[in-house]
Amino acid sequence: METTRRRPQHSANGKRSEQKEQLAQWGRAWEVDWFSLISVIGLLCFAPFIVFYFVMACDQYECSITQPVLDLYQGEATLLSIWARAPSFSWSAAKIYAVWVSFQVFLYMCFPDITHKFIPGYVGGVQEGARTPAGLINKYEINGLQCWLITHALWFANAHYFHWFSPTIIFDNWIPLLWCTNILGYAVSTFAFIKAHLFPTNAEDCKFTGNIFYNYMMGIEFNPRIGKWFDFKLFFNGRPGIVAWTLINLSYMAKQQELYGYITNSMILVNVLQAIYVLDFFWNEAWYLKTIDICHDHFGWYLGWGDCVWLPYLYTLQGLYLVYHPVQLSDAHALAVLLLGLVGYYIFRSTNHQKDLFRRTEGSCSIWGRKPTWIECTYRSADGGMHRSKLLTSGFWGVARHFNYTGDLMGSLAYCASCGFGHMLPYFYIVYMTILLVHRCVRDEHRCSSKYGKDWKRYTDAVPSRLIPGVF
Ligand code: NDP
User: Fold this and answer.
1) Residue 365: helix, strand or coil by DSSP?
2) What is the pLDDT of residue 451?
3) Which string of DSSP letters, residue by residue, matches 40-78?
4) Confidence (pLDDT) at 22
5) Which of 374, 368, 375, 343 is nearest to 354 (CA)?
6) Which of 367, 380, 404, 428 has most ligand 1 atoms within 8 Å of its beta carbon, as the pocket-test mutant?
7) Domain boundary assignment for the chain
8) Which region among 9-13, 203-207, 357-361 has the lowest average model confidence (pLDDT)?
9) Out of 115, 158, 285, 361, which residue is the most buried by the measure of CB atoms under 10 Å away?
10) Confidence of residue 280 (pLDDT cuts 50, 70, 90)
11) DSSP state of 370
12) Atom of ligand 1 minimally distant from the CA of 296
């Protein structure tokens, strides 16, 4: 168990929360080692340029990620000449982005969910999140599916009826929009950082490591809010990034049609597979309240900038690539990709569903036609309370400890393989997702081990593999 002390905070009853420091330390890291610190500073300085590099490589080098380096090496280009050739900030892009974000805030705040009243099986409206390390249970207004539906209905109404703007608008402003997303990403992270010091929503759930860079990047406040309902994590995690994901792909598809007069099967595959993933996200938004992003991560640059910039730009690289390289796949290739994507999605969803069902029913359910098996655990929250929990050891959770990540990775590989094998750029996504999910796996297991102690050890003895049985 880590031993660093929590920065003293005054709680509502005047006592210092320092008194509770030893009670629950299973949230985010308290100590920052040198390796983490160097990585954090490196990411804060260079991550925007990584995103720029990929988009610029498509714009100037037809999506070759090696050619810019070769040109620089051979003296045919300089960093300044590459920068000068890239479209710059534009006020028209700023207006588009301001309208987009304001519209998403408007939908999020002003339209309480009604879809759950008429879509059978959908869980929306006011829902509870998981217990925080301080022992709180937050309420959330779940209306992501409704926002996604309204936004996409308007998009199609515009494309086919109103013609207020071209459906290629996103592609046509892609690099100028990168400036705007970065401005919002850094602004919201900086605001969250200042807010955590001056007026945190819940001081008991703040974490200060003593390292300013780490605090800025990984966040201090657990659930920053403005007012009762504007929850930073829920808003930025899902919208404007994930609602935009499918619109960005549609804009790429429209651009392909405009440039070549046809749409390739690869573009359709990317649009369909990623739309399934996005719709799954909104259909299960209430369930996402119990995932690591919402119930364990604090809100800082990692989530704020990541949701505004990294996600919309790098999760959509396949569609962007296909605008420059309209690959038409053979039927066999297309079918194989579709199967890989659907099987991956099935594993991802079923694994997540099994855990959700098991936790909701406290084990009174059937998994793969049998009564589930589990390990009983206890843990302590910062208010001193002892709680009980269960770790499932049957179904996909008996195959590996994070088989949901394995399914996610299969789906990610399918997006990349939709683009054929001509360039490396579309494969960045699977490389990135592998690093993200392996790192997440290690991070999560470290947290679970601190939370559950010897009970976690019993679980890892019962289910020894993390992602691939017998391999890792
Ligand atoms: P999980 O849904 O796997 O949640 C991990 C948590 O579940 C643990 O912290 C623990 O929490 C609990 N848990 C662990 N083992 C068990 C068990 N055997 N039985 C019951 N509960 C258990 O992880 P994530 O939140 O990271 O991921 C959710 C989904 O989102 C995944 O499918 C992932 O692939 C996807 N994802 C996608 C990303 C993307 O960018 N596309 C990014 C991140 C995630 P507790 O404290 O409650 O015990």
Assistant:
1) coil
2) 85
3) HHHHHHHHHHHHHHHHHHHHHHTT-SSHHHHHHHTTS--
4) 41
5) 368
6) 404
7) 46-86, 89-328, 331-471
8) 9-13
9) 285
10) very high
11) B
12) 9
The residues with which 102 forms a beta bridge, in sequence order, are: none
Q: What value does the mean pLDDT take over residues 113-125?
A: 93
The protein residue whose alpha carbon is closest to atom 27 in ligand 1 is 291
Residue 14 region by backbone torsions, left for phi larger than 0, else alpha for psi between -120 and 50, else beta: left
- Is the pLDDT higher at 15 or at 464? 464
- Considering the entire predicted model, what is its pTM? 0.86
pLDDT at 266 over 90: yes
* CB contact at 8 A, 5 and 21: yes
Question: Pocket residues for ligand 1 (CB within 6 Å)?
Answer: 291-292, 348, 352, 355, 389, 391-392, 397, 402, 404-405, 408, 440, 444, 448, 451
User: What does the chain come to in residues?
Assistant: 472
Closest CA to 367 of 341, 396, 405: 396
Confidence of residue 30 (pLDDT cuts 50, 70, 90): low
Sign of the alpha-carbon torsion through 434, 437, 441, 446: positive
Structure tokens given for 328: 């038409």
Rounded mean pLDDT, 117-144: 88
For residue 59, pLDDT beyond 90? yes
Ligand 1 atom 14, closest CA: 391
Going by alpha carbons, the residue nearest to atom 30 of ligand 1 is 291
